[in-house]
Amino acid sequence: MELQFPDVSQLRFSSSCSFLTFFVSSDTPRRPAKKAKPPFLLVNSEKRNSDALKGLQKEANKDLSRILRTEAAVKGIEKKANSKTARNLWPKAVLEALDDAIRNNQWESALKIFGLLRKQHWYQPRCQTYTKLLMMLGKCRQPKQASLLFEFMLSEGLKPTVDVYTSLVSAYGLSGLLDEAFRTLDDMKSVSDCKPDVYTYSILIKCCTKLHRFDLIDHILTEMSYLGIRCCTVTYNTIIDGYGKAEMFELMESSLMDMIENSECLPDIYTLNSFIWAYGNAGQIEKMEEWYDEFQHMGITPDIKTFNILIRSYGKAGMYEKMGMVLEFMRKRFFSPTIVTFNIVIEMFGKGGNIKQMEHFFQVMKHQGLKPNSITYCSLISGYTKAGLIKRVDSIMRQVENSDVVLDTPFFNCAINAYGQSGDVKKMEEIFLTMKERKCKPDSITFATMIEVYNAHGKAKASQKLEMQLYDRNKNSDMEGQESRSQKPNMTWTLEMDNYLIEALVQQVHLGNKIDKLRALLSWNDQTHTIDVEPEVWNSYVEITLMMIVRLPHPQMTLMMKLEILHYDQEQ
């Protein structure tokens, strides 16, 4: 039976639910229920009262208005931050704008607003504010800014708390500076009333898993045991999630058993989501479904993120009928789809070449009052590019121009790739200029895509110019990384190391597991222990190598690899 979806014109509000009934049309034949086997998707829920349902009908419009107000407020306060006379602003406006910038990881805006906050006559320094800023800078991979902010805090006479130190550990660790993170941990131990707690160690473990330094986890757990710090649910979930993302399934399941044996820590919804994401991302759908059932028997009910993971997993596996079943189940259980849900559905149909359904859900999304973001438009452009519909890419670009959506580098990369594949070099160059005008920094994907297009069209001079820009950018990045830690030796990149990395990438692409193996190469230095290269330096050379890859005669290592990396980064 083919899964049917209604036209947008058939959308209507249901009298018994709070959102548009659109997943399955009313004339779709229903299968009789089988009593012998329970349904795969099972959740215990109570019927919502009518007042709650009525209140939900206006949620979408309220959310859209709130988003627009928030963006305008942040921009307004940011403009005042450049003024030298704005010293008596309304506290609520400044603090709310700062919170919104932090929540959206707009680190440059947040620091500007924080600078304005410090100028106010009513300003009083608080450790809590610094903690939020440091956590944000860690997520944005800004260790240098985090270090400066910490110095600012000390200059204001504040005494760092456990939360402040923990945030600083996170900022260093998530940026790849594990040595600095462990050094900060040692500083904490030297302060009598600021000892690291279980959450400090949990964040340190998270940093290790993201950098594939799984060899350090046992060392951290041993130190925790020595200090009498017991693992909590967050600690176990962090370890499980790290092993799952690295496809180390045996260790992931072993950690779950340790968690269950610890009577103080029980699996929760985060454990469930980590398990089904790990198996679903690896394409092991049967294992994903088995563990979904296991967690159901434990009494753990799914949430909206669980369903998003299931939709994504089924979509990647090309199991669109099961994807539709999850959507229908959500509708019946009053789980309103979020923008993340729609983005996943749009992306999956686009990758599968089903442009009709991709466009359908994009229209449904807008009818529900959900504001498309850069990820939405990026998925649409990728879908149209794959289908060779470049004129529809033009339509999307016009929509973006007439909206206030915040565009990012991945969006422009998709647009540049679309016009590059179609052979419209002039339009590609216009997008590149617009990207710079919007202050979106080009990355290795941007340069690699344009260099390949130029080479394909015989424009050697333009290609060489971009190569020099990329070289200068990475050179400046290397110098900044060396300045921030001048005590480390200055390393020299050799031709042999270039050859090693290229050969390793070629080999791993032929093995098929492109993304995880590419990411794993970032820890090559730690595994071989033959040379000491700073993380920022190593990352920049990986970017240079990606640029070099497009010149190699390996068809598997061209645009498909770059787009896979792009989609992988967006999902994270």
From TrEMBL:
One of its GO terms (molecular function) is mRNA binding. It holds the Pfam family PPR. It comes from the Eukaryota. Keywords: Repeat. The keyword Nucleus does not apply. PPR repeats lie at residues 126-160, 161-191, 197-231, 268-302, 303-337, 338-372, 373-407, 408-442. PROSITE patterns: PPR. NCBIfam families: PPR. Belongs to the PPR family. P subfamily. This is Pentatricopeptide repeat-containing protein At3g53170 isoform X2. It comes from Nelumbo nucifera (Sacred lotus). The lineage of its organism: Eukaryota, Viridiplantae, Streptophyta, Embryophyta, Tracheophyta. The gene is LOC104611708.
